[in-house]
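Our consortium's second objective concerns turning raw sequence data into structural hypotheses that experimental partners can test. To show how far this objective has progressed, the report includes one record in full. It was chosen at random from the queue rather than selected for favorable results. The single chain below, 150 residues long, was entered without modification.
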Amino acid sequence: MNKRFDRIVAIIFLITGITFMIESRNISSTAYGSVVGPNVFPFILGCILCVLSCRLFYETFKYKEKESESIQFNYKQFFIVLISTILYALLLEKIGFIISSFLFLIVCFQTMERGNWIKSISISLGYSFIIYFVFVDVLKGTLPGWSIWF
């Protein structure tokens, strides 16, 4: 890891998280048919981003000084994840949250670490169903469910 790069990124993420938290307060607090308003998740994600960026900044003090490291960029993996993220956003309402999240996670897991399909499938299915259940049944929000049509 590069200490200087990680510190700069931690500060940028902290500013981004604070901006999410501040700007989420400008979003309406309720939505039609939902107890959870559209301002809740941006605020929570902003809080999480702030906490993680503070942790990243703190951990940069533990880095050992190393000689110059050569950084290898994985452009192929980056573009696969970028394209799958765009497709996830485009297909979310068409094929539903559970199926699109499952497919998105499978692609990302297999891009990062090939093989171990059972682990990838079980984590992807578990995430998709648990998040859907928590948001729809517990928080009484709305998500596109099983609407498959081609």
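The partners drew two points from this record. The chain has two domains: 3-62, 75-138. The mean pLDDT is 83. Both points have been shared with the crystallography group to help prioritize constructs.
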